[in-house]
Amino acid sequence: MDVTKASLQAELTEAMRAQDKVRAGTLRMVLTAITVEESAGSHHELGADEVAKVIAKEAKKRREAATAYTDAGRPELAAVEQAELAILEAYLPKQLTEDEVRAIVEATVAETGATGMPQLGLVMKAVQAKVAGRFDGGQVAGLVRARLQRG
């Protein structure tokens, strides 16, 4: 599903008409993040892939905030973050499971012939290209490290 800034703006209009405050607020937040990204650096309109990266980044922020609020004993704030996360996830490609990523890591290690930690960068680059936007990069790094340390 290719999400563009224009499609998000149309969905924001729909959410405002439906008086869906959580959805409207979440879409406003994403559109603001996209605008900030567009104005940073080369000042260009973001394509669908770049918009997806911004949405993934915002989703990660919500996931981390929900965890932090839960750990701090603030379930009401965690619920708000989780509601926003659910809205954002609808715009992201289907997320991979940890087992699926492990299989990708195994296949990539075999493809590249990596034998240990010196090839971490090579394997990470190849795995990230395969899972881009569908699994957390930090967790991917952990899985690749664990696999390469085993040899």
Overview of the molecule:
The protein has 151 residues and is mostly helical. The chain folds into two domains: 5-89, Hypothetical Protein Yqey, Chain: A, domain1; 98-150, Arc Repressor Mutant, subunit A (Orthogonal Bundle), CATH 1.10.10.410. The chain has seven helices and no strands. α3 (48-71) packs antiparallel against α4 (75-89), α5 packs across α7 and α6 crosses α7 (137-150).
Could you give the topology of this structure?
Layout: H1 5-17, H2 21-39, H3 48-71, H4 75-89, H5 98-112, H6 120-131, H7 137-150
Helix pairs in contact: 1-2, 2-3, 2-4, 3-4, 5-6, 5-7, 6-7
CATH class categorisation of the largest domain: Mainly Alpha
H and E order: HHHHHHH
Which architecture of the largest domain does the CATH hierarchy give at level 2?
Answer: Orthogonal Bundle
List the total number of helices: 7
Structural class, from secondary structure content? mainly alpha
Portion of residues in beta strands equals under 5%
Q: CATH homologous superfamily of the largest domain, by name? A: Uncharacterised protein YqeY/AIM41, N-terminal domain
Portion of residues within helices: over 70%
Protein name: GatB/YqeY domain-containing protein
Organism: Nostocoides veronense
InterPro entries: Asn/Gln_tRNA_amidoTrase-B-like, GatB_Yqey_C_2, YqeY/Aim41, YqeY/Aim41_N
Pfam families: YqeY
